[in-house]
Design brief:
alpha/beta; six-stranded mixed β-sheet; binds 1,4-dihydronicotinamide adenine dinucleotide; eight-stranded mixed β-sheet; globular; 682 residues
Length: 682
């Protein structure tokens, strides 16, 4: 019998006196715990308390999963910490009410179960999760600059113990059901068809929840002891500090502090959790990381208008990029053929594929299936069957043009021809084609398996349909498509190159590489510019810089040219600006502690911001948000700063413009403010 008129919940009390509470948020495909959903739940819990059933089962009416978390859109609506605290306390009250119900409570979890969704499940006595790789559970709040805020920080540790629980919360990782059970925060893993039976048998023959927690293993008890917690916390803090500084990312540190200070007193810990998250929510880091999350969603929506289902991808060029692109596409389920003029290269591609598949897929059957989808084809016999042909041969106009002339007549009708060129304007390449409208850029970044962005490059000739299909395909291989116009360097390399070259100019001036990198790291970059140049390969940096210097005021520093002439190409040769040992740059201890002159970071960041302003003015991408998204996902630009243009807005455009003018005065015209400053930051 359905007994309610809620918009977001279906309630049914059955003959066994079990109450089934199905969340099915109105007008959306995904359940989130927005204010209206929580208010209805609160109302229902009040009714349940007055007329207690034998058990309550939480489940989802959505296909894709249980609950994806809190409503992130509400995170940016709080005007003050007090405002945020009210919302958090409402959540707390509801989760506490679920936990306090004097009947057995069960959460039936399929698909995604993240953040607030998992916190709700943790407030139940039992969690039953579907035995399916698509079912994933996790508390990813740290990735948004906060920590669990509906009581999860306490309840996760209670369920999984401090090591597993803290690891899950500090990394923000999600886990399949079997792993979650091993960690202790899922009780039963069953196929979906057994969900109802499982819930009924738990409720009709329950173990007492109290007893369940008391039998948890003794190691967890010891680690949770008040004298041991500070020692464990020291270790956890040390590990967090390797990845994120307290100043830039306060949330993981706050979470550790909560556990150390209050775990013995759950009520107090929950109160302090609410205070702590309210403060974090209105802080700059969380606000900017929420912005980054939304930018990602915007990118994911690109190309969603077309219905495109390519089956066969043919990649030409099996080097660093072509090989990795082919490997990635086969991993993501496509049938891929790979062609190279040098068949030895193809054997290496298969070896690399095996290594990646073993790491990612683990199960031998899945590894074999992925390998079967990746077929070497040195003569290009499969070319006429391909839906998409991705060219990734040498960065040489003539070589690419000759290849296009040769393959165009063999392409099937409607096939997309894509190039991975990083610096050649597409117009130059498409000029040799009979149908220039079918060429599009699919500019992947190196390493393909790590870099989430793909620039979808178009010329005035590229057909909209091709463009949208390329974006749709990019999404199908789990990468983020960014639409860019074909101008030299597109967006990411054009903005990155002046920054890298400025760093090299500083090396030429005698500033130690390590100090320059340290300045960038302190700003929040994931890797310093000199180490990045060494990692990308100095030959590649030089090549792109030379090409860009034809259209931009970029000067190629002599130390870069010299190192390349000496075949010191960076990480791949073991020597570049740094000496590499076991793949890591050797850094001296002494310079690690040296104080950094402030203008190093100003020079690096302002030259980058100035180029970002220039790209926006020229319309390389469509909006300020897309410039920021490209730089964050294409280079790892300090996400907690929300992107270069957002950072400029936050610091004050006027103030940064003055600094830029001072730099121009001291160092010359490469710092000349772009005309766009007056328009964008007026
Ligand atoms: P690579 O030198 O590692 O590989 C090029 C491969 O193409 C070689 O294996 C070569 O045998 C093959 N090849 C050349 N001409 C061919 C032809 N006519 N038919 C069949 N195979 C042919 O080059 P890499 O680094 O993979 O670059 C490929 C493309 O990707 C270039 O356009 C480059 O600008 C672009 N790119 C490179 C990035 C990088 O970090 N290496 C990053 C993003 C784009």
């Amino acid at each position: 019998m359905t007994t309610n008129n809620y918009k977001n919940w279906n309630v049914r009390r059955d003959d066994n006196d079990i109450l089934w509470l199905e969340i099915d948020k109105e007008n959306t495909n995904t359940n989130v715990l927005s204010k209206d959903v929580l208010l209805e739940l609160e109302e229902e819990l009040n009714l349940i308390k007055k007329d207690l059933p034998r058990g309550v089962v939480f489940l989802s009416g959505k296909k894709n999963g249980f609950i994806a978390g809190a409503d992130i859109n509400e995170f940016t609506t709080f005007e003050s910490k007090e405002d945020a605290l009210i919302a958090i306390q409402r959540g707390h009250k509801i989760m506490n009410a679920i936990e306090a119900l004097k009947c057995t409570t069960v959460a039936l979890i399929h698909g995604h179960c993240f953040g607030g969704g998992l916190e709700l499940a943790l407030a139940c006595n039992y969690r039953v999760a579907e035995d399916d790789p698509k079912t994933k559970l996790g508390l990813p709040e740290v990735l948004l600059g906060i920590h669990p805020g509906f009581g999860g920080s306490f309840r996760m540790i209670r369920a999984a113990g401090p090591m597993s629980g803290m690891t899950a919360m500090l990394t923000g990782k999600s886990y399949i059901a079997k792993v979650a059970k091993k960690m202790g925060f899922v009780d039963y893993v069953v196929p979906r068809r057994h969900f109802i039976n499982a819930a009924e048998s738990i409720i009709l023959k329950p173990r007492t929840p109290q007893k369940k927690y008391q039998t948890k293993n003794t190691i967890n008890k010891i680690l949770n002891h008040k004298f041991i917690r500070p020692l464990v916390a020291k270790l956890l803090t040390k590990n967090v500090a390797k990845k994120a500084s307290r100043v830039h990312y306060p949330a993981p540190y706050a979470l550790i502090d909560l556990w150390v200070s209050y775990y013995d007193n759950p009520k107090k810990m929950l109160e302090e959790e609410a205070n702590s998250i309210a403060k974090l929510l209105v802080g700059k880091t969380a606000q900017n990381l929420v912005r980054v999350f939304k930018l990602k969603e915007q990118l994911k929506n690109t190309g969603s208008k077309v219905n495109y289902e390519p089956k066969h991808i043919h990649v030409i060029g099996g080097g660093i990029m072509g090989g990795d692109i082919a490997i990635w596409c086969a991993l993501k389920g496509f049938n891929v053929t790979i062609q190279d003029q040098n068949h030895e290269v193809l054997a290496k591609v298969i070896q690399r594929a095996y290594k990646l598949y073993k790491k990612r897929l683990k199960a031998p059957r899945l590894i074999q299936q992925a390998l079967d989808r990746l077929v070497p084809d040195d003569k290009g016999i499969s070319l006429p069957q391909a839906d998409i042909v991705i060219e990734a041969i040498f960065e040489d106009i003539e070589a690419k043009q000759n290849l296009y002339k040769d393959i165009e007549p063999k392409l099937k009708d409607g096939a997309i021809l894509a190039t991975n060129t990083s610096s050649i304007p597409l117009q130059k390449l498409s000029s040799v084609l009979k149908s220039p409208n079918r060429l599009v850029g699919l500019h992947f970044f190196n390493p393909v398996a790590m870099m989430p962005l793909v620039e979808i490059v178009k010329t005035p000739d590229t057909e909209d349909d091709i463009y949208n299909k390329a974006a749709s395909f990019t999404k199908q291989i789990d990468r983020l498509p960014l639409l860019v116009n074909s101008t030299p360097g597109f967006l990411v390399n054009r903005i990155l190159m002046p920054y890298l070259m400025e760093a090299v100019i500083m090396v030429d001036e005698g500033i130690p590489a390590q100090l320059i990198d340290k300045a960038a790291l302190e700003f929040g970059m994931p890797m310093g510019p000199i180490e990045l140049a060494d990692t990308v390969g100095l030959d590649i940096c030089l090549h792109v810089a030379e090409i860009l210097s034809e259209s931009m005021t970029i000067s190629v520093p002599s130390s870069l040219t010299n190192l390349v002439a000496q075949k010191k190409l960076g990480k791949k040769t073991g020597q570049g600006f740094y000496t590499f040992q076991k793949g890591k740059p050797v850094k001296s201890k002494q310079e690690k502690s040296t104080v950094i002159p402030s203008n190093i970071s100003e020079r690096l960041i302002l030259i980058l911001v100035n180029e970002a302003v220039s790209c926006l003015r020229e319309g390389v991408v469509e909006s300020e948000d897309m410039v920021d998204a490209g730089i964050i996902f294409g280079t790892g630009f300090a996400p907690f700063r929300g992107g270069p243009l957002h950072y400029t807005n936050t610091r004050g455009g006027d103030q940064l413009l003055k600094k830029l003018e001072q730099l121009q005065h001291t160092f010359g015209d490469r710092f000349k403010p772009d005309d766009g400053w007056s328009k964008i930051f007026a």
